[in-house]
Amino acid sequence: MVVNEESSGTPLELFLKIGLDERTARNTIANNKVTNNLTSVIHEAGVTEGCSRTIGNLLYTVATKYPANALIHRPTLLGYVVSSKVKTPAQLEAAFSFLSKTASESFELNEFEEACGVGIEVSVEVTERTVNEIFEQNKESILELRYRTNVGDLFGHVRKRLPWADPRIVKQLIDAKLFELLGERTAADNEKPSKQKKEKPAKVEDKKVADENPVLPSEEDLNPFLIFPNPEENFKVHTEIFFSDKSVLRCCNTKEMLDKHLKATGGKVFTRFPPEPNGYLHIGHAKAMFVSFGLAKERDGCCYLRYDDTNPEAEKKEYIDHIEEIVQWMGWKPFKITYTSDYFQDLYDLAVELIRRGHAYVDHQTPEEIKEYREKKMNSPWRDRPIAESLKLFDEMRRGMIEEGKATLRMKQDMQSDNFNMYDLIAYRIKFTPHPHSGDKWCVYPSYDYAHCIVDSLENITHSLCTLEFETRRASYYWLLHALGIYQPYVWEYSRLNVTNTVMSKRKLNLLVTKKYVDGWDDPRLMTLAGLRRRGVTSTAINAFIRGIGITRSDGSLIRLDRLEYHIREEFNKTASRTMVVLHPLKVVITNLESGSIMDLEAKKWPDAQNDDASAFYKVPFSNVVYIEHSDFRMKDSKDYYGLAPGKSVLLRLKKLFEFGFEISIKEVVLADDNETIIEIQAEYDASKKTKPKGVLHWVAEPSPGVDPLKVEVRLFDKLFNSENPVELDDWLADLNPQSKVVRSSAYAVPSLEKAAVGEKFQFERLGYFVVDKDSTPDKLVFNRTVTLRDSYGKGVK
Questions:
Q1: Active site residues
Q2: How far is CA 633 from CA 329, 560, 593, 650, 709, in A?
Q3: Could you tell me which residue ranges the Glutaminyl-tRNA synthetase class Ib non-specific RNA-binding domain spans (predicted)?
């Protein structure tokens, strides 16, 4: 629906003519949307030369509160307002309610008039009698509260009984009745009521009691998809496009168009996840999947996986294969896998139709000239060339008769618009490059701005969901579908997912990979989904993290990495079996244990393992030679240190695992010739000591006399960047964390880990959660740290 408005003075002049005071008029002008709406209303009402202040105020209300789904009936309502048949705010609200339910359907005028109280006159006598009755019913309360009585409540009682009474008369009668009943205001009436301090509840015993009535989460928390409308509601106007000539495009589907769409879809929700196959997906794409696949799943609908493959130069089969595989890994099953290139013929045919309708033209400006003309809001010299000429040239573009870069097809939009995404966007460009999916059939390729909205329409998408950076493209999206006269999906944008201490732009990720700052697209330090998976993060943890963030439009916020780590720990604490690994081994010889004697102990894989469940235990050898972490020993003790030191004993981590304790203390520290390097610690245990040390250490023992424990490689991954938001820095690469990857190539592990499989996850006691990496070989296992046991960011803890 397009409304055209002839110029009849400035908006300020128009607003003053309809009786708005100057302050309100100027405040209105500061809001472009209200200004355009009110200007349209004034023109539709035919009062450009002015009207009474009462009518003007009602027109202002129409401009700000009229239901968008019934714009087709607005002129009818304005006729009633200007003729004073609808003359009170109550009548106007009733009209809004009636028209909102009617939407774009036709209606009987007598039903509308009855709903709005048209022609009903409530006399002053009837109003006064009703006010007296209300006062009589509430007399006791009014006498008690006096002038602190809530006048709004009294007004509401009257309005309930006389909805069409003149509100000014009602107010006058209520004020007069109050004065009659109470007399002049007294000093006490003008005093503010004193605030009574709330009594503090009596202290109770510090005892946790289960809440019998716990606060349940809201439906929105349980179901983030409740914010989206149903497909049958897609007749409402929820987007308006304001053109520089003062016309307004109000985007909506006709009843016939929507009925045809609903017949094709069976009334189901249809969404799409449309990645461009020019790189690996990152955690932001996981949110996009959650929104589109999640909505379809929640509504028992369908979600396409659609490759937006309009740029043959940047797309690779490698990326296409990766995307399909990672979507499945994330737990989503596409209704159908499609490509924008599947619709190249349809897109071309619709481009020809767009030219025929006078909404597109072939242009010969260079990219630099297009940029300059857009900045100056100037039309291309070829903008108004004859339609037949553009049709001929576009056909020549398709047949490869024009050189690459010498012509483009541009949409004829609005070069004077306030929205730069309406500056005659390019629809087609020439590229003599074979396409990964369609081969060499085409040498003209559609742009994203041209193709994505049309393919949404062709696939009968009900909800076209994308991130907020595309919000300014909504005008172009609907302009094009309106210009072609085809079905218009419901468009909604949500906030982009930004996580601290990383980058997620494809350009920056590509630079990190190609310049070898990281070890490929699946480097565990990256927030690519391949990297997160290799780090050991599960799709269920990622989806739980995204559900916890919610689907909102609050843009620009950074989500702390801690939140993702919380969900990882929550899952791994329940699923990762416990084991022991020493990263930087220090040899400890227990001198008063028999040399060469090996004890096979059973350790619990889970803290709550049942003793009768053999599968919940694993074998751990224990001997007189064990290895502890270097960081668990100091030559100088301190009060806040709980490791092993001269004069301080520790407990080897046995009691918790094996139901008994093993306390050791230092007998001698054996140093190398440099008198600094520690070769080994000679210790002894004391079974008779009854005081339990505070320090409890994990360890790995020799599996047999003189044989080193199982040697493994452990990669300790940390945040990739030191700053929370590296993209804000001029030299973001200088912010790379040099300690983001630390490799311990000679760690010791218990023998039971020898047969661990790639992808298997463990909790290394006291160290964190780890996963077996794909670089593992039969000769040496490699583990990646997924996350520490506790958040260490900002604490300097490794």
A1: 276, 496, 506
A2: 43, 34, 21, 10, 20
A3: 12-167, 170-245
